[in-house]
Structure formats: C-alpha cells, structure tokens
Amino acid sequence: MTLxxxxxxxxxxxxxxxxxxxxxxxxxxxxxxxxxxxxxAFSHTPGKVLNGDTGDVACDHYHRYSYDIGLxxxxxxxxxxxxxxxxxxxxxxxxxxxVKGLAFYDRLVDTLLxxxxxxxxxxxxxxxxxxxxxxxxxxxxxxxxxxGHYAQTLAAALGDRxxxxxxxNEPWCTAYLGHLSGEHxxxxxxxxxxxxxxxxxxxxxGKATMALRALRADLQIGITxxxxxxxxxxxxxxxxxxxxxxxxxxxxxxxxxxxxxxxxEELALILGAVPQHxxxxxxxxxxxxxxLGVNYYSAQVVSAPQRHQPAWPxxxxxxxxxxxxxxxPVIPRGLTDLLMRLNREYGPIPLVITENGAAYDDLIEExxxxxxxxxxxxxxxxxxxxDALGQGADVKGYxxxxxxxxxxxxxxxxxxxxxIHVNYRTQERILKDSALWYxxxxxxxxx
Length: 447
Ligand code: IFM
Description:
Blueprint lengths: L2 H4 L8 E5 L2 H4 L12 H6 L17 H15 L3 E5 L2 H4 L9 H16 L3 E7 L5 H4 L7 H18 L5 E6 L1 H9 L11 H25 L4 E7 L3 E3 L4 H24 L6 H5 L7 H7 L5 E5 L4 E3 L30 H14 L4 E6 L15 H19 L4 E7 L18 E3 L6 E3 L1 H14 L1
Parallel strand pairs: 1-2, 1-10, 2-3, 3-4, 4-5, 5-7, 6-8, 7-9, 9-10
Antiparallel strand pairs: 11-12
Helix pairs in contact: 4-6, 8-10, 9-10, 10-13, 14-15, 15-16
Bound molecules: 5-hydroxymethyl-3,4-dihydroxypiperidine.
The site of 5-hydroxymethyl-3,4-dihydroxypiperidine has 8 residues, from loops.
Keywords: Carbohydrate metabolism, Cellulose degradation, Glycosidase, Hydrolase, Polysaccharide degradation
InterPro entries: GH, GH_1_N_CS, Glyco_hydro_1, Glyco_hydro_1_AS, Glyco_hydro_1_beta-glucosidase
Catalytic activity: Hydrolysis of terminal, non-reducing beta-D-glucosyl residues with release of beta-D-glucose
C-alpha cells in the first residue's frame, strides 16, 4: 500500500501543519525593544556558527509574517507552529514587560486566525534571555520561576485565541548540545551543568504547565521532545545492552521524568553525573499533559561498545541507510515504532508530530527547486504516521519542519530544511516542489 491508499487513516480533524522557531526565522534582533538572547551572544562569537552566520536578519519573518501567512494559506495548511522569543517579551528575562514585543505575537495570531490557520505556540525554542544566562541560566532554579511567570504573561495576552501550548522544544538539545557538547548556546561543556540544566528546564515545564492551567482551564498543554529510537545491530546481549543505554540517553532521559516522575538509573553511568533533585520537584515535573509533541528525524543502529571503551562518548553508531544533508540516516519505520512505543509505555497520551522534515542540498533550476529527495522523505514519514494511526496510536497532527529555509543553529544558513526556498540576500521566497506536493497531499487528505 502507498501513502495515497492510507490517507483514510487520517481523521478529518487531523492537524496538517508547518513549523518554525523565533530565532531561526524572525530576524529583527534589536527591533522594538527586543533584548539579547544567548543565541545572539553565541552566534556573534567567532567560530561558533558556520560562516559566522547570525539570526540578526534570518528570514525577516518579523516584518514579512503577513506575506508568509499568505503562503501558508496558499498551501492549505490548517495549523502553524511558531515559538515566542522570550527576550522580545521580557528583554531582561523578567519584570519589565516589552509591550511592543507582545504586540508582534498579537498581530501574528490575529493574522493567522483571519486566514483560517490555527496557531500552536512554543514558549521556549532555545533563545533564553542573556540576562538570565548571566545569573546561571538553566542551572539556576530561579530561571524555572521566571519561565512560569513568562508563560502566564503570554497566556493572559494570547490564551483567548491560542489554545495549544508547548512549554519546551527539545530540552535534550538545551541540556546536551548547550551544556555538554557545547555546539549550541550557551556553549558549556560540563556533565553536571547538562544534567542540572535538564532538570531545571523540566522543572520550568512543570511550573509553566501549572501556571497556564491556573489561568485558563481551556488550554491544551504539552512538551515537545526530540526522540530517536535505537536498534541493536544484532541480537547479541552486548548489542542489546548498548542499544538500551543509548535509548536512555536519547529518549528516557526526558520521557521518564515527564511521564513517570523519575530519572532512569543508568543516566549516571552514561553522563557521569546525576541531577540534584527532590521528590517534590519530580512531582512538579510529572504534570498530566494534554499531548506529547514528538520531533522525529532519524533513528540509530548501535553495535556493542568495544571492551574498555568508556561509557561516554556514547556507543558507536552504524548508519546503514540513505542519509540527508545533515548526515542523518533516513529510517521512516523508526517513526511508526516510536509512536507505538510511546503509546504502549507512556500512554495513553495524544501525540502530535511537532517536527519532521529533512535538509537537502537544493538547486534552483529556472526559478524552481525540484527537491524530489525531500518529497520522498516526507512521503515515507507521513506514511509511517498513517501506519501508526492504523495500529491504534492517537496521533493528532503532523507539522512539517520547516515552512521555509532558516537559520539552522551551528550550521547557520548552510542547511536548508524548508519547503519554501529563501534567498537570504533578497528575501525572495520560492515554493519548492515539496511545497506543492504537501499542498496536494493536504487537499487529498481533507477531501
Ligand atoms: O532546526 C531544528 C529545530 O530548531 C529543532 N529541531 C530540529 C531542527 C532541524 O535540526
């Protein structure tokens, strides 16, 4: 069966969306009172981002949002997932509210609704106000407090129109890439910093969830985790053990505290550190959620670590499949397996694919981008979602990453994930073939 034969698996209420994030698309880094974030500081530090790229201008979505929403409308997407830049709302992280920053999201939400597109809002997609980093950032429990207040401020302003709220995007990246590998802002390289940053980010998720619920009972609240299933390369005990450890690192580090209220014991073995935490904090972290956001890009096949190899770095990975321009193996089946596993081990919980997509080295030919590899990737992964629906998983939506090419963090503008091509010199947008393909798919699915 092909995807076309499985479209009936998607219910009529299915959310067919596209996703972006503030620092990756907005630009306007110093406009209308926005304060600096850790990503402004990081990207302006020589050597941290490829080619010295920064998010200063990005896709200029801050000024062109109305045009971009028109493009979304032309594609027929039903939902738009965006994130709010915390330092636009509180330039210093807390206290002084920047009314002009808030007004931008007010306009964005109204324009979306005017076009019949439902907004879904992420509170934190990595652009922590720099002022908070200077006080310890995610390693400081006060940041969790400030996040709860920020969440409540936004819900008071937008909660009448925005009903789906995501607290954090991919706290694994905040913790690991930001505090251990140092590839992301704030660029730290300490195991204890990573586990504690993860813990207080999770605590802030719990606090924000409680704050939003206290303010409005009609909000749907979730968290988005980047999850990546792990398969042993053979059935030996060693390989299975290596896969299970890698799974703790990739997935259970965040799934277990959010849904079970505890950290996996093996975390100390893998990371060489355990988060400082109290039972009361774990209860705050384990809030009942309305949905889990799943970001899926790839899976891993691992083999047994060599004897005497330290537990860190993580076991050797052996990709066997096609890869994207990021070097990530294309494993659509991993998405079906993941959704079924979440349902089985952490559910029942409604699931939303909050990101899925691929970077490829696109070529412009006579004003068009024939990105057939991306279409194949998308088609295979949406089919994987259909399979999970067919097997009983409660999947509410699919948000394609990304609406348009944008600032891909440490890779700057070198990696293109969009279904809309962006010329960063002129800001011209071109619908790639994948955009037209997605438009047709949505049309068929909803017909
Ligand atoms: O661009 C990122 C996004 O910000 C978070 N999830 C993964 C995407 C691709 O790397």
